[in-house]
Design brief:
By secondary structure, the protein is an alpha+beta fold. The protein is built from 17 helices and 35 strands. The mean pLDDT is 95.
Length: 647
C-alpha cells in the first residue's frame, strides 16, 4: 500500500490540493516544484528551474509547466491547470485525475472517458534534465497526445511579461526542438523518445496568477510564452518519455534513462524514508566536485550556520559518513579562509556569523560519537584546536572573549544569531552581549576539545582547556541562571532580557553543560509548559511581551513574527535530546507522541518533507520555505536518538 497517495476526492478539491506542494531536485542546485495537481501557485514553481551561474547566483525558471491534452475523435481534453486573474482556473485538467501517488516517483493517473493515462516524473541526478513518462494504460480508439510548453526564462525572484524582445526562434533537434527566449540563457531542449510533429503556433498566455505570492504580499501575475505544441500518436500500453534539459538528449536512450533513474529513488513508504529522501534533496554537488548543503527550498542558498547545524542529521543519522566528510571538507576550506582573512572561494554564505565556528565544533562532536575519537582526531583534530585558539585569541571580528570566560557579541545594530529577522534595517530581536546559545556552545566545545586533548595525550593543553571551561561554566551559571526557573536569553552588561525563549534548551541538550541536573529539569519543564507545540518549540512564550505567533501577511508583518512566537521543528530536536538525557526511557511514549506531529506533515504543505516554521498557535499551519534542511536534520537525529533508547 502506498504511503503518499491521494485519491480523487482530494485531488479535485482545489481548496485542499493546491495547498500540497512537491519538490524534486537533481542534487546540483536545480529543482522541479509545483502542487500535486500541477498548478503553479508560486513564482518559484516550475517544471525545470536551474541555476545559471553565468548570469547570477539565483535559480531561473526555464520551463514553467507542460500541458498535455488527450485527442480522440477530433476532441481535445486538456489535462493542464492554471490559475488566472479573477480566481479563474483553466483548463481544469484536475477533474480528470483519479489519483496521485508519490511513493517512489510522482505519478498521476488521469481518466478521460475510456482513456487512462499515467504520468510519471523523475529529475535526473546531477543533470539539469527533467524526465516525464506518459503511459497509455487503456484506450478504445485511436489516441494522440498534444503537449504545450509554457516558457518563462526568468529568475525565480522576478516575473516575465509579454514583450517584443523575447525570441521566437527555435531549431529542430532529434525528436524535438531547442529554443531560448533571451541571450545569456542556456538553450532549452525539449525532446521525446518517439518522433512526433512540432507545430509552431507562438502565443502569450496572459494574466497567470500565483496565489502564494498574493498571500505573501508580493506581485503575483505574469505572462508565459508558448511557442507551439507537439503532437504524438500513442497506442494502448505504449509509453513515451519527454525530456526537458539544458543539453541535448539522445531520444533512443530516454526510456532506459527514465527506468534507471526511477530505480535509484528511495521509496517514500514511511515517515523516516520520507525524511531520508528529503535529506538527499539538500545535497549539492557543484561543477568542481565540491559538496554542499542547501539551507532550504525554494529560495535559500548555502549558509554557514545551517550547514554545520544540519550536517550531522542529514548525513550521520542516516549512516552517510562519507557525505559528512565531503561536505565538511568544503565547509572547512571556507571556514579556514575566513579565519585566515583570505578571500572565500565557495558557495557558503554568512561565514562571519559568530556562532558558525561553534556549530562547526558541535558538528565534529557528533562525528566523534559516530566514528570514535581516533578517527575524529585524524580528520578534525587540528581544526578543533585551531578554532578554539582563534576564538581564544579574540581574532574573530565580532566575537570577544571576556575576562570572565564568556563570549560577547554586539547585536544591537545587526542580527548576529539565528534569530536574524530585521525591521527598518535593525534586528527585531536585538540579542547582544552574552547570548545563551553562543556561550552554551562555547562551554560544550571547550569540554569537547579537552576530551580530544586527553585522548591524544596532550596533558598540558587539556589542563588549559579544563581551566577555561571551569571559568566559563562558573560565569555561565552566574549570568544566565535566574530564580524564576528558566535561563535568560541574553544579558547585555548587567541587564538581562526577561523573555522566555527556546535557546535555553541548548545547555540542557549538549553533552557538556555547566548546569546542575536540577537546573536542567527546571529549564526543560519551562520549555514544556511555555514553548512546546506539536510542531516544535515556540520562539517566544505566549506570556512574554511581543508574542506574535502567526507568520502571515506582507513581508514587513512576517518579519515581526518570524522569531516572536512561531514554532521551529529543529529546536525540538534538541528538546527531545534533552528529554532523553534527563529522563531516559520514562519519556519515550511522550516523545513518540511528539514525533507523530511531524509525520502528519508528510501529507501537508510540501509532501514528504518539513517546512521552515509553523504558526505558534493552533492549527499550527506550516509557513515559509517549503523544505528546510535544519528541520529535516534534527528530526532525523531525534529519530536516531529515540531508536537507541528503544533498543
Amino acid at each position: 500500500m502506498s504511503y503518499l497517495k491521494f485519491e480523487r476526492p482530494l485531488m479535485i478539491n482545489l481548496q485542499e490540493s493546491l495547498q500540497k506542494e512537491m519538490i524534486r531536485t537533481n542534487r546540483s542546485g536545480a529543482y522541479s516544484c509545483t502542487t500535486i495537481v500541477d498548478c503553479n501557485t508560486r513564482k518559484y514553481h516550475g517544471l525545470l528551474v536551474v541555476p545559471v551561474p553565468e548570469m547570477d547566483d539565483d535559480n531561473h525558471v526555464l520551463l514553467s509547466s507542460f500541458d498535455c491534452s488527450v485527442i480522440q475523435h477530433g476532441a481535445a481534453f486538456n489535462l493542464g491547470l492554471h490559475k488566472y486573474q479573477g480566481n479563474t482556473f483553466s483548463p481544469n485538467g484536475h477533474k480528470y485525475i483519479q489519483e496521485f501517488d508519490c511513493n517512489k516517483i510522482p505519478t498521476t493517473t488521469y481518466r478521460v472517458g475510456g482513456v487512462i493515462l499515467k504520468r510519471e516524473t523523475v529529475f535526473q541526478h546531477y543533470q539539469d534534465r527533467i524526465l516525464i513518462r506518459y503511459t497509455l494504460v487503456d484506450a478504445h480508439s485511436a489516441t494522440t497526445l498534444q503537449f504545450r510548453p509554457f516558457l518563462a526564462f526568468r529568475s525565480v525572484r522576478q516575473f516575465t511579461h509579454e514583450n517584443s524582445v523575447a525570441s521566437r526562434d527555435y531549431e529542430e533537434v532529434p525528436n524535438g526542438i531547442r529554443t531560448r527566449m533571451y541571450d545569456g540563457y542556456p538553450y532549452l531542449y525539449m525532446q521525446f523518445s518517439k518522433k512526433g510533429e512540432f507545430v509552431f503556433q507562438p502565443d502569450w498566455y496572459r494574466g497567470i496568477e500565483y496565489p502564494k505570492e498574493q498571500e505573501r504580499g508580493y506581485s503575483s501575475n505574469e505572462d508565459l510564452y508558448v511557442p507551439g505544441y507537439f503532437s504524438i500518436p500513442i497506442k494502448k500500453g505504449e509509453s513515451i518519455v519527454f525530456a526537458a534539459s539544458t543539453s541535448e538528449s539522445k531520444p533512443r536512450g530516454l526510456k532506459a534513462l527514465f527506468t534507471e533513474e526511477a530505480a535509484e529513488r528511495t521509496p517514500r513508504d514511511n515517515f523516516i524514508h520520507c525524511l531520508i529522501n528529503a535529506a538527499h534533496q539538500f545535497h549539492v554537488h557543484d561543477k568542481n566536485g565540491e559538496r554542499y548543503l542547501l539551507a532550504g527550498y525554494p529560495w535559500f542558498k548555502c549558509r554557514a550556520r545551517d550547514t554545520f547545524l544540519s550536517l550531522p542529521g542529514l548525513t550521520l543519522s542516516i549512516d552517510e559518513v562519507d557525505y559528512f566528510e565531503d561536505a565538511m571538507k568544503t565547509a572547512t576550506r571556507q571556514l579556514r579562509q575566513f579565519m585566515e582573512e583570505k578571500e572565500q572561494t565557495g558557495l557558503i554564505k554568512e561565514m562571519e556569523q559568530p556562532d558558525v565556528p561553534l556549530w562547526a565544533l558541535w558538528a565534529i562532536q557528533q562525528y566523534d560519537h559516530k566514528v570514535g575519537s581516533e578517527a575524529c582526531m585524524e580528520h578534525y583534530g587540528k581544526l578543533v584546536d585551531d578554532i578554539i585558539d582563534y576564538l581564544s585569541a579574540n581574532k574573530h571580528p565580532i566575537v570577544e572573549l571576556d575576562d570572565n570566560g564568556l563570549l560577547k557579541v554586539d547585536g544591537t545594530k545587526k542580527a548576529v544569531t539565528w534569530m536574524n529577522s530585521t525591521s527598518k534595517g535593525l534586528p527585531v530581536v536585538p540579542r547582544t552581549g552574552y547570548v545563551i546559545e553562543i556561550n552554551a556552545l562555547w562551554y560544550n566545545d571547550l569540554c569537547f576539545a579537552e576530551q580530544l586533548a586527553n585522548a591524544k595525550g596532550d596533558n598540558e593543553r587539556a589542563a588549559r582547556l579544563h581551566d577555561m571551561a571551569v571559568k566559563c561554566g562558573e560565569a555561565f551559571v552566574k549570568t544566565f541562571v535566574n530564580p524564576y526557573g528558566y535561563l535568560y536569553d541574553f544579558v547585555d552588561g548587567d541587564k538581562p532580557n526577561l523573555c522566555v525563549r527556546p535557546n535555553m534548551i541548548f545547555p540542557v541538550a549538549f553533552d557538556y553543560s555547566p548546569l546542575t541536573p536540577e537546573q536542567k529539569r527546571s529549564v526543560l519543564d519551562m520549555c514544556t509548559r511555555e514553548l512546546l507545540t506539536p510542531k516544535g518549540l515556540r520562539t517566544l512564550s505566549p506570556k512574554s511581551t511581543g508574542y506574535n505567533p502567526m507568520y502571515v501577511g506582507p513581508q514587513a508583518q512576517r518579519d515581526l513574527a518570524y522569531h516572536q512566537g512561531t514554532a521551529w521543528p529543529w529546536l525540538e530536536g534538541f528538546y527531545i535530546e534533552a528529554c532523553l538525557k534527563l529522563y531516559k526511557r520514562s519519556r519515550l511514549s511522550f516523545i513518540q507522541r511528539q514525533m507523530i506531529g511531524y509525520e502528519d506533515e508528510m501529507f501537508n504543505h510540501c509532501i514528504g518533507t518539513l517546512p521552515e516554521l509553523f504558526d505558534g498557535n493552533p492549527p499550527f499551519r506550516g509557513r515559509g520555505a517549503i523544505s528546510f534542511a535544519a528541520n529535516v536534520a534534527e528530526i532525523l537525529r531525534a529519530a536516531e536518538l529515540l531508536e537507541t533508547y528503544n533498543e
